Amino acid sequence: MQNTVSKSQVMADHTVTVSRLEEVVSTADEFDRVVSQALPVLLDRATGYTKRFLRETGQWNDDIEHEKFALRWGSEYLERFLVCGRTEVPCRPLFLFDSLVAKQHSKPEPFCYHPDLLRPLGRFLDGLVARAVVSRDALIALYHHSYGWGPGEVIAATGLNGLESQRIYKNFRRWRDSGWQRTMDEMGLTKAELAELSSQQQRHRQRFNSEGERLIRVAQAHYRKSEPDHYPCLSRSQWREMFTQGYGCDYRIWHLALCLDCVQTAWGLGSNGSLTEEKPRLELQVRP
Amino acid sequence: MGYEEDLETYRSQRLQSLSSQPSRSVRGGSDPIQVYVNERRVGELEGVGVDATLHVKNLEHIETIQLRTEDGTLLGGLVAPEYGYRTSRIQVSSDAVELCVHNTAQGGALNAAFVPAPSYWSRTWKALADVADRLAIRRPDTAIAHSMRTIAFTQALLAILVVGLVVDRMAIWMSPERMLASVGQPEALRTVSVTEMEKVERQLGELARIQEKVGTALETQQKGMAQLHQTMAKLSSSHESVASSVVMVKEEMEKRQEGSETDRPIQRPVSDFVQKEQLEAAIKSLTVDNARLSNELARLEEHNQTLSAKLQTASVNASKAVAQNPERLLASQPDVESKNQSVQAAESSQNSQTQPFLFWVTFSDGTSQERIDQWVHEKNGRKGAVNEGWQEVRIVPPAVPPDLFLEQIRGEKIVKAARIRE
Ligand SMILES: [Zn+2]
Q1: A68 vs B10, B21, B74: nearest CB
Q2: Is residue A271 a part of any domain in this protein?
Q3: Are A71 and B88 a contacting pair at CB < 8 A?
Q4: How far apart are CA A226 and CA B281, in angstroms?
Q5: Fewer CB near the last or first residue (10 Å), C or N of chain B?
C-alpha cells in the first residue's frame, strides 16, 4: 500500500520535473539548477533511448549485462549534456537532451558493442580502453595493465625525454590513487567480480591472457578511431625515424598504448638498449 | 533479486558521480587541459600560468568541443553551431579557457586559449586599472570587444607604472610591514598627502592622453596581428601540405626501395632462369645421348653375343673341318686365313708353317706299304724315319689337342699304336 503511494508520488514528481525541463531556461545557472534536480529522470531517459537503440539494432538481450551497458552509456550522454548544455542557453533542456542523444545514436558506431565485452573481463578491458581515450592517466595505465610495465618501462618503450617522463610518473600516481577505482565504478564492476578476475589472472594465467588479447583487440580497434586522423599504424622504419628524430611524442604515446601490433613493430627503438631483446607479450594486470 | 539490487547500486553510483561532477576534478595546477573535437583528441592547452593557445582546423564540421583533465574529468564543453561562430568562456577552477568555434561549408575551425587566473598582484593591478579607467576617457563604442579587453589590460599595465611610482613615494614614509598590508587596498591611497595625489592626478591625465595614442596604436597592431594570423594559418596549411608531401615522398621512396628490392630478385631469377633453361636443355640432350649410347651399347652387346655364338659355332665347325679334312686344311691355308673362321685355326696354321706336328705310329700286322703310304697321304703328312717298327709322321698340326688327335688315330683300323715321343 505504502509502496503504491510512494510510486504514485514518484510519478507525480516525474511529471513535474519533465514539464519543468520542457520550459525555456535562459541562463547557464538556471540550466544547472533545473538539470541537477532532474538527473534521475534524464538518466533513465538516456538509458531508455540506448536500450531502444540496442533493440532496434539487434544487440539487445534481457540480462543484467545489457542493462548495465545501457545505463553506462546513458550516464555518459548525460555527463556530456551537463557540460555542453549550459552553453546552449536559452534552450528547452529536455529537447536539447533528446537531440543530443539522437545525434549520438545517428553515428555509425556510437559505442563499442560486442557480447563478450559485456562479461566481467570484457567490461574491464572495454572500460580501460574507453577511459584511455578520454584520460591520459588511463592511457598511460594501459601500458601497465597490458604488459605489467612501470613508469620507467613506459618511458623507455615510448622513447620519451625528461620533461615528458615527469608526466608519466604523475599519470601513474593519479591512476593508482583514484583513476582505476573510478573506471571500475564506471563500468559497474563489483568487488566480487574484480576479485574473481584477479584470481583468474593468478590461477589460469595463460587462458586469462589469451582471452584478454582477443577482447582487447576488439576494444582497441574501436577506440583507436578516436585518435586524431593522422595517427595510423606505421612501419618499423617509420617508427624508427620518429624515435630517432624525437618528434611525434603524442603519436607514440597514443598509438602504442592502443595498438598491440605496433608495440611489437616499434619494440626497442626508444630504449637505447635498456629493454630486453624479447618482444613484450600481453600480461594482463587487473590491479593498478 | 541480486540482479535488481546490483543494477540499482550501479544506477545510484552513476547518479552520485554525475551530481558531484565539478568537485571531482583533480587537475593539478600545471597540468595541461586536453582538447577534444567531435570526441577526438586534437591536442592540449598548456596550463602553466601562461597564455597558451590551440588552433585546430577541421576538414569536417565541428559538432562538439570538450575539455578534459588528464584524469579524464570533463571540465566543460561546447556544442558548435551548424554555421557561423560561437564563443564561450569556460571556467576551469580559477582559470578559464576561451573557445571560439567557426563552422563553414569547408569545415570547422577552433581557437582555444588558456587564460590563467590572475595572481594576487594582477588582481591588485586590475582594481587599480579600474580606478584609472574611471579617471581616464572611456571608449564605449570601440568596435571589437576583444580589443577592448586588450586595451583595458594595457591600461592596467600603464596604471601599475603609476602605482609603482606612488608606492615608491609611500615607501619613504611607511614602515615595510604597513606597506605590505596596504598594498592592494585602495584606501591606502587616501593616506597619501594631497600634493602627492595632485601629482598622481596630473600623471594620470598625461596617462589618459598616452592611452588614447596607445589605443589607436593597438588597433593598428591588432589589424596587423589579424593579418599575421592569416599568414600563419596559410603558412601552417602549406607547412602541413609540405609535411604531407614529405610523407608521400617518403612513402614513395620506401615503395621504390621495396620495389627495387623486389626488382632485383626478379632480375636474378631471370638470369637464373635462362641458365637453368640452358642447363635443362643440356641435361635433356645428355639424357638423349645417354639413351642413344645405351641403345648402342645394347646393340653392341647383342652383336657381341652373336659374334661369340658365331665364334663358338665356327670353332666347332673348324674342329670338325680339321677332323674331317686335315689335308684341305693344310692345302687351303690362305683360304682359311681369309675366312677368319677361327683364330685358333689361324694360329695353328701359322704355327704349322713353322713347326709340323710329329708323331710315331705302328700299323696293324699285315698292312701293306702301299696302304701305309695312302694313309699318310690321306693325313696330308710325310713319312719320316722308321725305328724298331715305329714310323715317324709329320703333319700340319691338328685342330684338336694332340692327345685327342692320337686317340682318334688309334681308333682307325690300320693303326696298331700311336705316340708322340719316340
Ligand atoms: Zn598500430
Answers
A1: B10
A2: no
A3: no
A4: 62
A5: N
Between chains, do B76 and A78 touch, taking CB under 8 Å as contact?
A: no
ipTM metric? 0.92
Mean pLDDT of chain B: 66
Q: What angle do the packed helices B2-19 and A39-56 form, to 10 degrees?
A: 120
Task: Tell me the three state secondary structure of residue B42.
Answer: strand
Q: What is the predicted pLDDT for the residue at A242?
A: 92
Range of the domain at B379: 354-419
Measured between alpha carbons, how far is A105 from A99 in angstroms, rounded to an integer?
A: 10
Does a structural domain hold residue A272? no
Residues 6+ apart with CB under 8 A from A171: A136, A137, A139, A140, A141, B70
- Which chain B residues are within 8 Å of A133, Cβ to Cβ? 41
* B19 to A87: CB separation less than 8 angstroms, yes or no: no
Which phi and psi (to 5°) does residue B34 adopt?
A: -85, 135
pTM for this prediction? 0.59
Q: Are residues A128 and A198 in the same domain?
A: yes
Last residue of a domain, one of A58, A88, A106: A106
Question: Å from B12 to nearest chain A CA?
Answer: 9
Of the candidates B180, B207, B233, which is a domain's last residue?
B233
Q: Residue B35 falls within a domain, yes or no?
A: yes
Chain A hits for B76, Cβ within 8 Å = 83
Q: What is the model's pLDDT at position A28?
A: 92
Which of the listed residues A106, A124, A157 is the one where a domain comes to its end?
A106
pLDDT of residue B308: 64
List the beta bridge partners of residue B394. B358, B382
Pull the grid cell for residue A89: 542557453
Partner B contacted by A135 (CB < 8 A): yes
List of residues 6+ apart from A239 with CB closer than 8 A: A262, A265, A266, A269
What mean pLDDT, rounded, does chain A reach?
91
Q: Are residues B135 and B111 in the same domain?
A: no
Cα A115 to averaged position of ligand 1 atoms, centre (Å): 24
User: Which residue matches cell numbers 576617457?
Assistant: B137
Q: Range of A202's domain? A: 116-265
Distance, CA of B334 to CA of B349 (rounded, Å): 9
pLDDT (tens digit per residue) in B218-229: 565 556 555 555
Residue A46, C-beta contacts closer than 8 angstroms, at least 6 positions apart: A73, A74, A75, A77, A78, A97, A101
Dump pLDDT digits (tens) for B9-29: 999 999 999 987 654 445 666
| Position A132 in a domain | yes
A21: Cβ contacts below 8 Å, ≥ 6 apart = A34, A35, A38, A41, A42, A92, A93, A94, A97
Kindly provide the residue ranges of all beta strands, DSSP E only, lying in B269-389, ordered along the sequence.
357-363, 382-387
- Does residue A32 sit in the same domain as residue A173? no
